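>> Question from a student workshop board

For tomorrow's exercise we were told to take the sequence and the ligand below, predict the bound structure, and bring the output to class. My setup keeps failing. Could a helper post the expected result so I can at least see what it should look like? The ligand is flavin-adenine dinucleotide.
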Amino acid sequence: MPNLDDAQIVIIGGGAVGCGVAYSLAAAGKTDVLLLEREPALAAVTSAEAAGLVGQVRSSVERTRLAMWSVETFSELQQHDEANPAWRQVGSLRLALTDERVDEFNRLAAVAEQSGLEVSFLSNDAAQEKWPLLSFDRVKSVLWCPSDGYLQPTDLAMAYRAFAKARGVRFATGTQVERVVVENGRVVGVETNRGAVACSTVVNAAGAHAYHIAQSVGLRLPIVPVRHEYFITVPADGMTPDLPVVRIPDATLYLRAEVNSLLVGGWEPASLSCDPGDFSPDELAPPIEPDWEVLDGFSRQLAPYFPQVRELGIRSVQKGWPTFTPDGRFIVGPSRQVQGFVMAGGCNAHGVSGSAGIGRHVVESMFDAEPSKYVKSLSPDRFTETDWDWETAERQARTLYESYYHVGH
Ligand SMILES: Cc1cc2nc3c(=O)[nH]c(=O)nc-3n(C[C@H](O)[C@H](O)[C@H](O)COP(=O)(O)OP(=O)(O)OC[C@H]3O[C@@H](n4cnc5c(N)ncnc54)[C@H](O)[C@@H]3O)c2cc1C
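>> Workshop helper replied:
Here is what the output should look like for this input. Compare the format with yours to find the bug.
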């Protein structure tokens, strides 16, 4: 067990985001860092459920660059034997089925170009060569991003850990933060089930429990857990792990190969959220049963492009509560209200793919004399210094989830 007496910085939560912050701090030379995770293993909660898709094509330059930074990090980590995230840079195909979507792809390609991200339009025949099992008959445009891909989130967390640990960052699993101790408006430590830890900075990366950790220091934040799920079929002929990731936003679907099976997920038209105020900080978020109606909806929506999906049995269903915010933006950076309290949450279902970029922004928000306008715009102060009500925030977060693949999202 590492030294748990004190640290300059304590990270609460060892999911993809907490581990990404640990990596980013270590990469910036900040190594008097202790990450506390209450589960026996890292990345055991929401991150373990993620599909691991890593997409860089976004509607703003800032979000594109954040995702590009993650990809750069994954490629760098891939070079380390001891910290290999099993990054599969297979590329991605984004399919347009409507004229409105074709226009959107043109706008996305312009944002990509401005951001320095390589994308191109493929003919349907060229796309067919990359994904022989899909029918491209109704497809009006194909946007190809060669540097996209996917990875297994737990492998990524292990890679972050190996990198950070080799530079002196400490990791303690099975260690639950029970209270953040604040004196005279500043963080002075945390109390855990293994005793007190003195620290001057806490990074709140507690996923669906980030709401509770913030509330424990008097900060109310609209961190809304919204259900998300996907299924994996039995092995299917022709499926291989090197197939590109596919997104069909007009059918609200994404798919990729999972070894030699098919993984299919999507954005539900009528989403389900929960209020973290309804479960205690000591409990897991409510259990989720697979919603077969929703999952069958994904399968039916995919059938015109991949008819075999109706015949393939479903081998497993992954599901969890990624957190969304009412404005669809991350909550990242120090609070003005409580000195030494830093947020890293509200990931809007980008917590795995965005983890290295989020970690980098956390470091910038903490140590740069003048963080960028974008990083400043992610501050928790935008919620703690304005009036908002939970009901509206939850509704807005759900709307953002439901419109995830809408044109212009
Ligand atoms: C079905 C599904 C598919 C998804 N697909 C993708 C995808 O393809 N790409 C993508 O980028 N994202 C995806 N996501 C979203 C992604 O999973 C989340 O954005 C990401 O996992 C959030 O990471 P996190 O570290 O914030 O949260 P978590 O992984 O939940 O980690 C938070 C950690 O904090 C710990 N914790 C909580 N309270 C305490 C405490 N008091 N003391 C100590 N530790 C504490 C928890 O035990 C937990 O391990 C998907 C999500 C789901 C559910």
